[in-house]
């Protein structure tokens, strides 16, 4: 099952309208009265409406064009009205962006103009999501049965499929028919149900038989409580996808078993095929499946090579999903006769008559085995969850796992769901799992609860659980990490090692911290390119000099080999080490240090085993890695957890990159700072286009780099990083052909590789550890090593030389044909740990932040990002309106994956989420706004102005009234005076006129009381429920403020935003003032989720956010009070020092505009010269690249200028007071 967004506009709707059958009516949308039958020899149902929300729109029977197009393209109801707010179509969004882009061209300052364009690219208007396409499709053998069967079998097969789709949609309606209301969708509300247009198909994109149903779920539903149409909560829909897919497949099995007495057999990915249909025949009718299988096999081979074991079913299923999307092609629809003739020909070619196939399937179910006990079911469920790739599970995950276990026979499908629910219930009431979700501290009455009793201020099905065993393992690691270890290295030995290896700064500090600390587990965390390997060499040297022994370990053997070579230590992959030690063949040495590299990729179970080994031997474990890079594919997150909770040695200085700006940009990228995108964009490192354009551009750039030379006349190492192994194979073949044409690779005898051919001069990579294949240095062939082919034998064997050390080996033909690939292109997972001169990386909509960070940090001299704008396989849109590459990259930085976290971290996050000001503050603001709406509506109704709430200016009027309430104004008085100023009943917009009049009156009227959020609430019975909710939330807000204040008072280090405040004073009175300011700032940052890279408070919110504006002003007032007192005590030297500190906190305040503009012009000229130079002219391109690098001063100024614009409003008054205090001491 797949779920995709459909963007509003004709372009997306045409995706369905254009899928027409040759010689038939429209495939998706038959003409009114058209038959659903496919043809004389094939039967299939037509389209239909479905869902609890269709009655309100009068939608029944078949889907007709006149209903479908307005509804899904523009959000227009059959009666001509809009479904809530009007859809913004792709055409609307494109026109708005064009208008705003034209406006940016009128900005005089070149850098400000460039910044405005970047902001527009990242966050400009986007088209509305009109619908979601949930597509249900059975396994191939079911489609084969339909195509081969007579009319009875075809109808029964379709009936089973339709019943299964009904069950899957029913699950979605149960768990995803919710809408969001309030500012930022703080409330999640019940609805009447979904509106779904169901459209049936019977072929795949390659013309194979493939039954499937597109269920187009309208992204609007009618709210039960007030009848308003609102947008669906997409989070609930996507979360329920796994459960709906599992129900569909299991119900399909039960229905076919009941209707046609068929049997089933298991597949490796957890799905089941019909008994009686061979894998060979399934493969023959799976043109697309063959491409998918090839991709899955590549992924499986890589997995087994890396982890030493085949992937479990859950991991293999995820591989299949990724491969399915990666191999999708455009569709050509055959006629029914064409299709059936082609299928019969294919079947005969494989020794089968298509018409005879049903005899091998129908009525052939094997006798039912004895039903397994409920204890067996629970044990199987635990086993399945323990083999998962995540540390926590939602209710949807648990149901899916349970459905895979319960027995499917000819039982009613309702019993199947009940049986799975009972199994999940038994698990959740046992001690085998632990709830990670925190209870909601906010008690609400029935008004603010959904029909299931849950609060409207919580997400549906937000609960998560973890296996108790997983939590126990994590807790054990945390306990052992801090326990004393008698093994350490004395200070003198450490100092000698640091001196020998010429370490300084953060590397020297890290070595001392790791070796002198008497703790069982040490951690070294460093970003990409920070010099972790060189640091480890000193660690190994010192540990061995102190009489200890070191064993290096890493998840991949290639990384272990690099560790062994560069750190001069014995190293193995973790799977091999654990396998041998568990069998007693190997054991840890005396006084051991287990040095585990790439520790973020090790599973929690394996880490527990390794730490237990070291502990039993009286030794120590050193974990080395980076939580921001790729993580474990099994249950993981332990390294990140230990890094968060345990003392950690850290490396900060980036040493890999030639250009200093790229080191800084890589840190921003690691920290998810959007400024990183600007840094790469300013230097033309980001290229956007359609996938085919991107692949061509990436290859041309690789070719220019790979065939050129550097300033010393040497060829550079260049790597293409792509998203799939299939892309790597295609680009690898193109690279090989280019190298042959250039004379770097011979066009002579070849050997067969797993994905290509190779000849003398080709670079290849080995993908399987084989200790039988030895090299001339005594080593052996390792997964991930790269080699150059030096000789090809007639037998198909090849002589090769390893790149890392020049050792030679002979690789046999059978090894090459299965386990060797061309090395010119690879994926981000395989690229982790590699360093080359230049890297070119393909980025698409599915790229994770971790993959982006790895891909963008492999090249010493340059890293270029090639962004595929048409790659969002979860979105159906008009290709004329593709997203901007900056927006796609920004989305990648913002996207977070809870499945990467440990169970402890998820529990902490849930507790913080429920109590955080970002949540309870939003609930307070929503309650206050709703109370204001109710109160103001009531007041205006009493004055004969009931229609005001329907004005388009009503929302602005609410913001104005709320703003005045927060200032302490008497609203009754102001409203009465505003209405009485002159007649208002006949104006075009009552709300608009009142908005203006209240603004004028507020300037002439003093507030009636002290300002304050709780004092700003309206009164009266009409708003009693909202006010009581706001008051209850206010108590939680005060409690959280007290927690923040206590944390700041006891913190060892001042907060990151505290530079402007300075350290906490020793004087009690001054300390209280400092704490007041710091608490207000921290609370504001938490409430409005101010990013870490924004200093202090950021820009002041606008008038459309009255509560945020009031909170900002309060925080700034508290800061003012403290600084005004603090400045009075400073002498001129101290004031000058503080000025410099402030400039470092928000750099660029005193920038030189003329120098900035001059540098900008130089950069533009250099960029034009660089891009205008032919790709093959390496010398000139190098010269222009150098010119680009010479504008480093401009880059610093540009960055400073950007920071200044962000901080200008926040710091203006503060600097004025500082200057005043410096000129006139005592006057502040």
Give a quick rundown of the structure.
With 1228 residues, the chain is of the alpha/beta class.
Which SSEs are present, and which pair or pack?
Elements: E1 2-7, H1 10-17, E2 48-50, H2 65-74, H3 90-104, H4 110-123, E3 129-136, H5 140-148, H6 151-176, E4 178-181, E5 187-190, E6 196-203, E7 209-218, E8 221-222, E9 229-230, H7 234-260, E10 264-266, E11 272-274, H8 279-284, H9 287-307, H10 313-326, H11 336-349, H12 357-361, H13 374-386, H14 395-405, H15 413-428, E12 433-435, E13 465-467, H16 468-482, H17 491-500, H18 505-516, E14 521-525, H19 532-545, E15 549-554, H20 557-567, E16 570-573, H21 574-582, E17 592-597, H22 604-616, E18 620-625, H23 638-645, E19 649-650, H24 660-670, H25 675-682, E20 686-689, H26 691-707, E21 718-722, H27 725-741, E22 751-752, E23 757-758, E24 763-766, E25 770-774, E26 780-781, E27 786-792, E28 798-802, E29 808-811, H28 813-819, E30 820-822, E31 825-827, H29 828-831, E32 836-843, H30 849-855, E33 859-868, E34 875-876, H31 885-894, H32 903-915, H33 917-942, H34 954-967, H35 971-980, H36 990-1004, H37 1024-1050, H38 1068-1087, H39 1106-1128, H40 1132-1145, H41 1153-1171, H42 1178-1189, H43 1192-1223
Parallel strand pairs: 1-34, 14-18, 14-19, 15-16, 15-17, 17-18, 20-33, 21-31, 21-32, 32-33
Antiparallel strand pairs: 1-3, 2-6, 3-7, 4-5, 6-7, 8-9, 10-11, 12-13, 22-23, 24-27, 24-30, 25-26, 27-28, 28-29
Helix pairs in contact: 1-2, 3-4, 4-31, 5-6, 6-7, 7-14, 9-10, 13-14, 14-15, 16-22, 16-23, 17-18, 17-19, 18-19, 24-25, 26-27, 33-34, 33-37, 33-38, 34-36, 35-36, 37-38, 38-39, 39-43, 40-43, 41-42, 41-43
């Amino acid at each position: 099952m797949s779920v995709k967004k459909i963007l509003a506009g004709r372009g997306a709707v045409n995706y369905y309208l254009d899928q027409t059958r040759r010689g038939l009516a429209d495939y998706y949308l038959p003409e009114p009265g058209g038959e659903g039958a496919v043809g004389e020899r094939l039967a299939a149902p037509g389209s239909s409406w479905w869902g609890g929300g269709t009655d309100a729109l009068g939608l029944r029977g078949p889907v007709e064009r006149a209903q479908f197009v307005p509804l899904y393209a523009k959000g227009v109801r059959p009666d001509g009205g809009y479904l809530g707010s009007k859809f913004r179509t792709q055409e609307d969004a494109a026109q708005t962006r064009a208008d705003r882009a034209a406006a940016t061209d009128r900005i005089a300052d070149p850098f400000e103009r460039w910044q405005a364009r970047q902001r527009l690219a990242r966050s400009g208007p986007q088209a509305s999501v009109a619908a979601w396409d949930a597509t249900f499709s059975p396994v191939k053998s079911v489609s084969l049965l339909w195509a081969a069967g007579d009319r009875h079998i075809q109808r029964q097969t379709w009936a089973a499929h339709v019943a299964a789709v009904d069950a899957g949609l029913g699950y979605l309606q149960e768990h995803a028919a919710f809408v969001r209301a309030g500012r930022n969708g703080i409330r999640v509300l019940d609805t009447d149900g979904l509106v779904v247009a169901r459209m049936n198909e019977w072929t795949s994109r390659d013309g194979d038989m493939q039954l499937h149903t597109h269920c187009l779920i309208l992204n609007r539903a009618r709210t039960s409580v007030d009848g308003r149409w609102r947008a669906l909560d997409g989070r609930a829909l996507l979360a329920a996808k796994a459960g709906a897919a599992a129900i569909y497949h299991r119900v399909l099995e039960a229905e076919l078993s009941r209707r046609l007495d068929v049997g089933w057999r298991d597949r490796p990915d957890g799905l089941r095929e019909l008994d009686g249909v061979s894998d060979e025949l399934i493969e023959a009718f799976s043109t697309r499946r063959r491409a998918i299988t090839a991709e899955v096999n590549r992924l499986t081979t890589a997995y087994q090579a890396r982890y030493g074991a085949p992937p479990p079913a859950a991991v293999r299923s995820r591989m299949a999903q990724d491969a399915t999307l990666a191999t999708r092609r455009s569709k050509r629809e055959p006629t029914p006769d064409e299709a059936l003739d082609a299928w019969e020909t294919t079947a005969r070619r494989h020794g089968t008559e298509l018409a005879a196939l049903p005899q091998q399937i129908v009525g052939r179910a094997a006798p039912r085995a004895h039903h397994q006990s409920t204890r067996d079911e629970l044990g199987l469920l635990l086993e399945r969850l323990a083999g998962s790739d995540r540390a926590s599970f939602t209710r949807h995950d648990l149901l899916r796992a349970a459905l895979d276990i319960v027995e499917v026979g000819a039982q009613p499908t309702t019993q199947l769901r009940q049986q799975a629910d009972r199994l999940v219930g038994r698990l959740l009431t046992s001690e085998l799992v632990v709830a990670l979700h925190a209870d909601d501290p906010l008690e609400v009455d029935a008004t603010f609860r959904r029909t299931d009793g849950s609060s409207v201020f919580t997400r549906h099905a937000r609960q998560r659980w973890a296996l108790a065993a997983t939590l126990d393992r994590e807790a054990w690691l945390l306990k052992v990490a801090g326990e004393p270890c008698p093994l350490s290295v004395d200070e003198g030995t450490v100092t000698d090692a640091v001196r020998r290896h010429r370490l300084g700064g953060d590397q020297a500090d890290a070595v001392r911290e790791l070796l002198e600390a008497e703790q069982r587990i040490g951690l070294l965390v460093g970003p990409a390119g920070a010099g972790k390997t060189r640091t480890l060499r000193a660690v190994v040297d010192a540990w061995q000099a102190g009489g200890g022994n070191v064993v290096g370990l890493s998840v991949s053997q290639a990384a272990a080999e690099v560790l062994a070579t560069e750190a001069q230590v014995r190293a193995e992959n973790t799977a091999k080490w654990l396998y041998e030690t568990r069998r007693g063949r190997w054991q840890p040495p005396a006084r051991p240090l287990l040095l585990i590299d790439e520790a973020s990729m090790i599973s929690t179970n394996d880490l527990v085993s390794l730490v237990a080994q070291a502990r039993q031997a009286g030794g120590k474990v050193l974990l080395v890695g980076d939580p921001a890079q790729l993580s474990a594919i099994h249950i993981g997150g332990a390294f990140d957890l230990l890094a968060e909770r345990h003392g950690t040695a850290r490396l900060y200085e980036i040493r890999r990159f030639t250009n200093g700006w790229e080191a800084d940009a890589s840190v921003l990228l690691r920290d998810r700072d959007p400024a990183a995108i600007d840094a790469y964009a300013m230097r033309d490192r980001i290229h956007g286009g359609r996938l085919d354009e991107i692949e061509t551009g990436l290859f041309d750039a690789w070719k220019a780099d790979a065939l050129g030379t550097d300033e010393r006349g040497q060829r550079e190492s260049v790597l293409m990083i792509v998203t799939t192994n299939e892309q790597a194979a295609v680009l690898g073949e193109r690279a090989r052909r280019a190298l042959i044409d250039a004379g770097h690779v011979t066009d002579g005898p070849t050997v067969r590789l797993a994905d290509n051919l190779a000849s003398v001069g080709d670079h290849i990579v080995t993908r399987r550890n084989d200790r039988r294949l030895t090299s001339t240095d005594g080593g052996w062939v390792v997964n991930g090593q790269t080699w150059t082919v030096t000789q090809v034998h007639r037998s198909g064997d090849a002589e090769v030389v390893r790149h890392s050390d020049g050792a030679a080996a002979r690789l046999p033909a059978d090894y090459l044909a299965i386990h060797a690939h061309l090395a010119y292109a690879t994926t981000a997972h395989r690229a982790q740990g590699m360093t080359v001169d230049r890297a070119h990386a393909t980025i698409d909509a599915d790229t994770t932040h971790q993959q982006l960070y790895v891909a963008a940090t492999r090249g010493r001299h340059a890293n270029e990002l090639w962004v595929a704008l048409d790659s969002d396989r979860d979105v159906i849109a008009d290709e004329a309106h593709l997203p901007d590459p900056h927006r796609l990259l920004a989305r990648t930085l913002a996207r977070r994956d809870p499945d990467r976290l440990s169970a402890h971290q998820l529990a902490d996050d849930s507790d913080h989420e429920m109590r955080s000001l970002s949540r309870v503050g939003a609930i307070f603001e929503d309650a206050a706004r709703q109370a204001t709406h109710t109160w103001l509506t009531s007041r205006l109704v009493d004055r004969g102005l009931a229609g005001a709430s329907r004005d388009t200016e009503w929302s602005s009027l609410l913001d104005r009234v709320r703003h005045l309430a927060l200032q302490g104004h008497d609203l009754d008085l102001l409203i009465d005076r505003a209405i009485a100023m002159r007649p208002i009943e006949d104006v075009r917009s009552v709300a608009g006129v009142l908005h203006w009049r209240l603004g004028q009156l507020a300037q002439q009227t003093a507030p009636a009381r002290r300002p304050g959020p709780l004092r700003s609430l309206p009164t009266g019975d009409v708003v009693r429920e909202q006010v009581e909710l706001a008051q209850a939330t206010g108590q939680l807000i005060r409690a959280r403020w007290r927690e923040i204040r206590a944390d700041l008072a006891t913190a060892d280090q001042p907060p990151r935003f505290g530079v402007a405040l300075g350290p906490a004073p020793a004087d009690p009175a001054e300390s209280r003032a400092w704490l007041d300011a710091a608490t207000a700032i921290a609370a504001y940052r938490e409430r409005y989720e101010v990013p870490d890279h924004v200093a202090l408070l950021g820009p002041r919110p606008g008038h459309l956010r009255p509560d945020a504006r009031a909170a900002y002003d309060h925080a700034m007032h508290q800061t003012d009070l403290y600084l005004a007192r603090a400045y009075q005590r400073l002498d001129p030297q101290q004031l000058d020092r503080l000025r410099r500190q402030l400039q470092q906190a928000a750099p660029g305040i005193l920038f030189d505009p003329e120098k900035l503009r001059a540098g900008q012009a130089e950069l533009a000229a250099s960029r034009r010269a660089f891009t205008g130079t032919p790709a093959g002219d390496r010398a000139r391109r190098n010269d222009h690249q150098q010119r680009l690098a010479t504008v480093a001063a401009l880059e610093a100024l540009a960055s400073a200028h950007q920071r200044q614009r962000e901080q200008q409003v926040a710091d203006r008054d503060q600097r004025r007071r500082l200057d005043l205090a410096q000129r006139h001491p005592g006057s502040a």
